[in-house]
Amino acid sequence: MIKFIKHENHKNLPPSPPALLIIGHLHLLKEPLHRALHEKAEKYGAVLFLKLGARNVLVVSSLPAVEECNDIVFANRPRTLAGKHLNYNHKTMGFSNYGNHWRNLQCLTTSELFTTNRLAMFSGVRLEEVQLLVKQLFLDSSSGTWAKVKLRQKLVELVFNIMMKMISGMRYYGNDAVDQEAKEFQNIMGDVEELLGS
Asked: Span of the secretion signal (predicted)?
C-alpha cells in the first residue's frame, strides 16, 4: 500500500482531490454529473485528474485547456471487455484505436452508409418508426391514468428498431415485436449493456 501511494505521488499529474484506494474518486461523483465535475474544476483547476476505479480520467473544463489537449495522444479509446468480446478485439469503429484501421472504417462508413442516397432510401423506415413511437406514447397517455414514461428507453428502442429494420427488415422492440427472435435479441442487448459497463 505504501509503495502504491509513493508511486502515485511521483507521477507528474494534474491536480486531483484525495482518492480512496480501490474506488479512487467514484465516491465524489454525484448526480447530476456535470455539476459535480464543475464543482471539482472550480476547486482544483481547469484540468483535473480523476481515478475511477482502475481507469484514469482527465477532466478538461475550459476552452483553452481543451484546445491544448486536443491531440492524437487523447484520441484512443479505453480497452474494455466489451471491446474485446463484442467488437472483434477492438476492431469496430466505435472501439478501435485512432490510426489507419480507424480511418479506413470511417471512410468506408461515410462513403457507403451515410450518403445522401442511402439516407433517402431509408427515410420511410425512420418515418414509420417515429410514427409508431408517437402512436404508442399517445395510447399510453390516453388510458386515463397517469403513468411515467421512460423516454430514454423509448428512444433507445426507436434507434435499435430503425437500425434493425434497415439491416434485417424486422422490429425487435415494441408491442408487435413478440416473437422468439425479438426476445432473444432483447436478452442479448441486456447482456451487451452489462458488458459495456465493465
From this structure: none
